[in-house]
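4.2 Preliminary Data

To establish feasibility before requesting continued support, the project team ran the inverse folding procedure on a target of 526 residues. The structure was first converted into the token representation described in Section 3, and no sequence information of any kind was made available to the design step. The complete token record follows.
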């Protein structure tokens, strides 16, 4: 009886072992694969030099964020470091990044050795999910094709006329009525987030100019459109990728679809969906409905909808975020410098013919004659460039003009925000908002683009520069004549920025709007 029981137990154990063999093999295989992945990550980490391998003061401060004890923003800390550096160049080893605020080095990168400083594959990988193959994220033939087409279209009188009409319409029908309703003249005061207002205004303008589509998202009684919200999220989270000392971490999170990478994927999916719908609607309407918008012009040369999507998103980033950033900073500065606002009103009255507080109409041609307004706008972007820095990757070994050696594959960044705060570049009054520095005998005189790289320089100079300046000057002329804008709890003297591909003020810019005495209904630029 005992022998039979033992035999039965032996058979049962053998059967159980046989049944578990596939699961055991699978478990062993999974464990081995996991160990291999962990080993690969470790080896990659060693190859990429993790932060604790560099003990220099700059890298330690970056990794531990100890700089935040003295500076409100990373860009201000960088400006501090660059001011102290003999060649206005510093190396943040943990990022593999050489930072510069030296005009000679900017000239070297953007003109002298342009071929050696492309955007590069590492940078393109960071923004690939968001910007794809758009003009701001590619090099070579793809960049050249988009640039030539965009430059030709943006320089055409028909498009500029169309864009001026769009801006005038948005001012007349949306922005100015909104400011009137928020002003104290109607009884009671209402605070507006000026950054949000200008984002919606610029969003509407660029949608109509780029797509022939009016998103109708300016009314503050309605929430910001899902597209604009997703666009902000995608910009912010894409920018955060570049701040990681080891890119393997965000790439792993993207692979596993967790954390911020999951949020980024969801935001980009919404951007993709709406961009695809815009393309379908434009194709359905055909050029007969509106052949003046940029999308219609690009669709005449491109049949790949994914490629069109990337181009659309890139122009949205350029036309919405940069214009809104520039306008927000301008009126924040004006709140702290009412004398500049008064000088703007005097010039507009003199050039455009306004009188006694009555707003004057500034045509597109008269906008060009507003030299003080132009100088004030450039001075604003010297201190608060919409794009604070721009990075390239060295295609080969190089030596910068200040003697810094740059190894192949190194990220090299010129820092426009820091350059605007360099005594060596702008003199001892570099921290002051002084539009007069741009005027000679009352006329605006530009500086070298390598000293003032707000619109880049060389062959990569911004193709939408004139369009953006026209839009911003139109807003300035229309708003300053009829309203006093007072920032509440914010100052241009101590800004706080949020992460993003463009300069964004953290927490927005709440303002109080007051209608100026005897200011009548505006007739905006046409």
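Position-by-position output of the design step:
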């Amino acid at each position: 009886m005992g022998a039979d029981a033992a035999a039965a137990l032996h058979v049962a154990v053998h059967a159980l072992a046989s049944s578990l063999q596939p699961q055991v093999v699978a478990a062993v295989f999974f464990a081995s694969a996991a160990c291999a992945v962990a080993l690969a990550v470790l080896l990659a980490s060693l190859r990429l030099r993790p932060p604790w391998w560099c003990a220099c003061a700059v890298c330690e401060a970056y990794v531990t964020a100890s700089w935040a004890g003295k500076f409100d923003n990373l860009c201000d800390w960088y400006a501090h470091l660059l001011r102290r550096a003999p060649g206005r160049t510093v190396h943040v080893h943990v990022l593999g990044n050489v930072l510069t605020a030296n005009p000679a080095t900017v000239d070297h990168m953007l003109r002298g050795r342009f071929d050696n400083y492309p955007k590069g594959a590492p940078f393109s990988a960071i923004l690939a999910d968001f910007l794809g193959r758009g003009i701001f994220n590619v090099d070579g033939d793809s960049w050249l094709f988009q640039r030539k087409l965009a430059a030709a279209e943006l320089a055409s009188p028909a498009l500029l006329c169309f864009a001026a009409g769009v801006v005038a319409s948005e001012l007349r029908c949306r922005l100015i009525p909104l400011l009137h309703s928020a002003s104290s003249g109607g009884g009671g005061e209402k605070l507006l987030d000026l950054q949000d207002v200008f984002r919606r205004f610029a969003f509407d303008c660029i949608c109509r100019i780029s797509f022939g589509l009016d998103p109708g998202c300016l009314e503050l009684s309605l929430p910001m459109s899902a597209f604009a919200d997703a666009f902000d999220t995608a910009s912010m989270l894409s920018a955060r990728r570049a701040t990681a000392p080891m890119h393997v971490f965000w790439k792993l999170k993207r692979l596993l679809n967790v954390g911020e990478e999951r949020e980024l994927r969801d935001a980009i999916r919404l951007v993709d969906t709406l961009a695809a719908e815009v393309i379908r609607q434009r194709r359905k309407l055909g050029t007969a409905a509106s052949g003046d918008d940029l999308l219609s012009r690009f669709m005449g040369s491109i049949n790949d909808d994914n490629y069109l999507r990337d181009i659309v998103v890139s122009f949205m980033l350029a036309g919405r975020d940069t214009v809104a950033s520039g306008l927000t900073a301008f009126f924040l500065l004006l709140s702290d410098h009412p004398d500049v606002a008064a000088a703007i009103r005097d010039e507009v009255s003199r050039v455009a013919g306004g009188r006694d507080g009555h707003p004057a109409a500034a045509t597109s041609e008269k906008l060009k004659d507003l030299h003080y307004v132009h100088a004030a706008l450039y001075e604003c972007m010297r201190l608060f460039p919409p794009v604070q820095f721009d990075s390239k990757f060295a295609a080969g070994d190089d030596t910068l003009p200040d003697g810094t050696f740059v190894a192949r594959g190194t990220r090299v960044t010129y820092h426009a925000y820091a350059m605007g705060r360099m005594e060596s570049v702008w003199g001892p009054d570099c921290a002051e908002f002084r539009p007069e520095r741009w005027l000679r005998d009352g006329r605006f005189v530009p500086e070298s683009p390598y000293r003032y790289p707000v619109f880049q320089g060389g062959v990569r100079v911004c193709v939408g520069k004139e369009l953006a300046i026209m839009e911003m000057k139109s807003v300035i002329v229309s708003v300053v004549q009829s309203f006093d804008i007072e920032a509440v709890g914010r100052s241009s003297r101590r800004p706080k920025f949020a992460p993003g591909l463009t300069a964004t003020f953290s927490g927005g810019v709440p303002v109080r709007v007051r209608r100026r005495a005897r200011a009548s209904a505006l007739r905006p630029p046409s």
